[in-house]
């Protein structure tokens, strides 16, 4: 059960000290130990600021990550990434894509940077009564998206063309990771998974078809692996999911409405669904009326982290009540995404970022 009224998606704009330190580390001018000390100090200050601005669920801002998804996925054996340059909106960006190299497995006995990161966050959150540390990880579908739909690899090491065996192992790996996080004190987990919105964009669906796949086939992969990943979860651990239409340096990646994917996603036993609804690109709330039957919470992402224009309290209240009339009383409010899905961050400054957090918290009077 997810009992929240308002929450954040997870990432925050990286302070300049973090950006400089990570650049120095990448160039070989800073040790990993010294980088971690700088990250620790900045995360400690971030958690204090989150609490001072009224947040009850805090994250580490993803300050230790380059990417919102790949840094987590690298925790699994059998998965790695490739660096390449890709042009978008007239700008060449240095990106990474992931692919499968062998049997997918999560080894709880080896040292995991993401587990260490959560341990530190827990210690910081524990300094403040009534504050909960929230861990954000990327979802199992993203392994399939990167390998099959982005890289276009069909015959993979260890599995060959047996995607059923792969889905089984990905799910088991996630089950192991969830148990490990739980053992380290995690009681609130958010699984970020933009794979669903890849599958509502007509441009991307053409790519899927050109690779020889059917939309329904791919969505069934996603449903199966996501559902099985949650099997055997601890009963007192709240697990939510978040998805938006992409967010690369503040730019959306996909277009389309949720109508064709909401009926499938809502079958997955998440406790809450964080969904982007910050502009007309999102369509109506109607696809999520099905959540009234499941008891899961709908978290309306009404405050934009991409647009620097500050929404008004009345605008958010009106939209929130529109959503509530459709999805019912199990509803909460959040920004539509994090403020920095990649370390460069969105096209927004820190002052506006915190004004948007203050707006979020101020809306508790009607939540």
Note the total helix count: 13
Largest sheet: 6 strands, parallel
State the share of residues found in helices, binned by percent: 25-40%
Distance between the ends: 18 Å
- How much beta, percentage-wise? 15-25%
Domain Cobalamin-independent methionine synthase MetE C-terminal/archaeal: 9-343
InterPro entries: Met_Synth_C/arc (IPR002629), UROD/MetE-like_sf (IPR038071)
Pfam families: Meth_synt_2 (PF01717)
Organism: Enterocloster citroniae
Question: Mind explaining what this structure looks like?
Answer:
It is a single chain. The chain has 367 residues and is α/β, with parallel strands linked by helices. It is built from 13 helices and ten strands. The protein has helices at residues 16-26, 32-52, 70-73, 113-125, 141-150, 163-183, 195-198, 202-210, 215-229, 262-265, 291-294, 313-327, 350-362, and strands at residues 57-58, 77-88, 91-105, 132-133, 135-138, 188-192, 238-243, 272-276, 297-303, 331-335. The strands form three sheets. Strands 5-6-7-8-9-10 form a six-stranded parallel sheet, sandwiched between helices. Helix 1 (16-26) runs antiparallel to helix 2, helix 2 (32-52) runs parallel beside helix 4 (113-125) and helix 6 runs parallel beside helix 9. The chain is globular and about 55 Å long.
